[in-house]
Write a structure and sequence with these properties.
globular; seven-stranded mixed beta sheet; 17% strand; 369 residues; Butyryl-Coa Dehydrogenase, subunit A, domain 1; 9 strands; alpha+beta; Butyryl-CoA Dehydrogenase, subunit A, domain 3; Butyryl-CoA Dehydrogenase, subunit A, domain 2
Length: 369
């Protein structure tokens, strides 16, 4: 299987790397962490002006039609610099509308999503068992629309989002719903996450919503798969950025008259990090390929997400460890990679939840084969 990037994807990667490296400096990230929204709106505007929000989206709405691969390339570069912009929920949400929304929804939402003037976010998680495919939030038909009741947990970066895509259960199966962020019956309860992002719990009390697709059509599964892959792409970049910090620190830091990087125990730690990162990369692109080829990709997605949640967390732990005392300095750059790695490792369920879902998939395949 060939995972080499096309020329178009290399161009996306190179431009994203240049922008994030130049703009998401340690000083700028520190400044954004103390801001009211915790989102770097200036960087978001720069990314939008560079045309980097739209490459994954269809050409008919102003995108480049490069699909999920373009989003993953972009997210990996964001993760390297832990750049505080809400790319993964905004673009995955736009992709869901492009794939399952009505013509009216696509024309109303996607052009502004491509140019960055409007944002979507995703409400996929709830309190309780970590199964995003089995939402407890309920939806009841009301004329041409629906009424949603329930609570969604830790909605990422709701500040500045005009609409939120909510998963909910109906009598005919699960469905994806579009809710205005300021609709009647919508209450936001602010919640700060490990990574300093200001998320929020979304309380719905008979809030009006539009269905995106039809109940039981698979829109929820489609969205959760792509959200899982997007998180794996960010985590890959976070791990790479953390390892880069470690390599620089250990080369410059001397002990007993020689660089720390020359100590065998330290080299073994970094070698383990490298192996984990390469496994994360291979499983990520295997999942992206399966999704883009229209295959039954649930197994590949869960494998990629497990590597991201388990090994991604291992990498940031090891990197922080080899930094010694500097690793626990909350103002030192590598600490932010640790916080991002920790947060991503629990989003949409942690490693144990991923293995539980993967086991259920394998058992189902064994029965039907």
């Amino acid at each position: 299987m060939d995972f080499a990037l096309s020329e178009e994807l290399e161009a996306v990667r190179d431009l994203a790397r240049e922008i994030f490296t130049d703009r998401a400096t340690t000083e700028r990230v520190r400044e954004v962490e103390t801001s009211e929204t915790r989102v770097d709106d200036k960087l978001w505007s720069d990314v939008a002006r560079a045309g980097l929000i739209g490459p994954a989206l269809p050409e008919e709405v102003g995108g480049a039609g490069l699909g999920l691969a373009a989003l993953c390339v972009l997210l990996e570069e964001q993760g390297r610099c832990v750049a505080p912009v809400p790319l993964w929920p905004a673009v995955v949400g736009a992709l869901a509308v492009a794939a399952h929304g009505s013509a009216r929804q696509r024309s109303a939402l996607l052009p502004s999503a491509v140019d960055g003037t409007a944002r979507l976010t995703l409400a996929l998680e709830e309190f309780g068992p970590a199964d995003p495919l089995a939402p407890l939030t309920s939806a009841i038909a009301d004329g041409q629309g629906w009424r949603l009741t329930g609570t969604k947990a830790v909605v990422p970066s709701p500040s500045g989002a005009d609409h939120v895509l909510v998963t909910a259960a109906t009598d005919a199966g699960t469905c994806l719903f579009l809710v205005a962020a300021d609709a009647a019956g919508v209450t936001w309860e602010q919640a700060e996450t490990t990574s300093h992002d200001l998320s929020a719990h979304l309380v719905l009390d008979g809030a009006f919503a539009e269905a995106v697709g039809t109940p039981g059509s698979g829109a929820v599964e489609w969205s959760v798969d792509r959200a899982g892959v997007a998180l794996a792409a960010v985590q890959l970049g976070v791990a790479e950025g953390a390892l880069r910090h470690a390599a620089t620190y250990l080369t410059d830091r001397h002990q007993f008259g020689r660089p720390l990087a020359t100590f065998q125990a330290v080299q073994h730690q970094l070698a383990d990090c490298y192996i984990d990162i390469e496994a994360m990369r291979v499983t990520l692109w295997q999942a992206v390929t399966a999704l883009e080829d229209g295959e039954d990709a649930e197994r590949a997605v869960l494998v990629a997400k497990w590597w991201a949640t388990d090994s991604g967390l291992n990498v940031v732990h090891r990197v922080q460890h080899v930094h010694g005392g500097m690793g626990v300095d909350t103002d030192y750059p590598v600490h932010r990679h640790f916080l991002w790695g920790k947060q991503i490792s629990t989003t949409l369920g942690g490693a144990s939840a991923d293995l539980s879902r993967l086991g259920a998939v394998l058992a189902r395949e064994a029965v039907t084969s």
